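Researcher: Please translate sequence to structure tokens.
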Amino acid sequence: MEERILIVDDDITFALMLRTWLSKRGFGVGTASSVAAARTALEAGGFSLVLSDMRLPDEDGIALLQWMAGAGVAAPVIVMTSYAEIQNAVRCMKLGARDYVAKPVNPDELLKKIREALDVPAVPAAKSASKPAP
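Model: Translation complete:
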């Protein structure tokens, strides 16, 4: 079965370039330019991995990760951003992101991270974080 990747980025040129590049490497690719569009695509199902920009027109990558955890969407997420900030990286990882990369992305490094994320079985975002401590 073909692995399908959802690219969530409001930079249409970047998303198209990434979509073309990933398609040539055998991935099925969908795109969304907002968190709302990403939710719709993920609710329809069929995506093995999400590549999401951190800053989107309606909400941010953190809001998407929170929604995915609440909705039980277990696809691994790699967050991409031009504004690499340590506190955002930490928040994303705590919310279940598999990785966090700075733009402009190195295509070979991104492909390596995608393959690593897809080789690891998807685990639903940490629900244990919401449980009270013993």
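Researcher: Any highlights?
Model: The CA atoms of residues 71 and 101 lie 24 Å apart.
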